[in-house]
């Protein structure tokens, strides 16, 4: 997540930047949830990684 927080909006289109920020927010929410399952954590990070590619 630290790497994703350092990415710059100007390197992305508006749509891909929005998707990346949404994925980052979701990953942060899952990490803050002490009741989150391993599957939820894995899914959130997989989405974040996927969105980072665009």
Overall description:
With 54 residues, the chain is mainly α. The protein has one domain. It contains three helices and no strands. α2 (14-32) runs antiparallel to α3. The protein is elongated and about 35 Å long.
Short structural description:
This protein has 54 residues and is mainly alpha-helical.
Oligomer: single chain
Question: Portion of residues in helices?
Answer: over 70%
Count of the separate structural domains: 1
Kindly report the average pLDDT value. 93
> What gap, in angstroms, lies between the N and C termini?
16 Å
Shape: elongated
Residue runs with pLDDT of under 50 for 5 or more positions: none
Name its key features:
54 residues; 70% helix; mainly alpha; 3 helices
What's the arrangement of secondary structure elements?
Elements lengths: L1 H4 L8 H19 L5 H15 L2
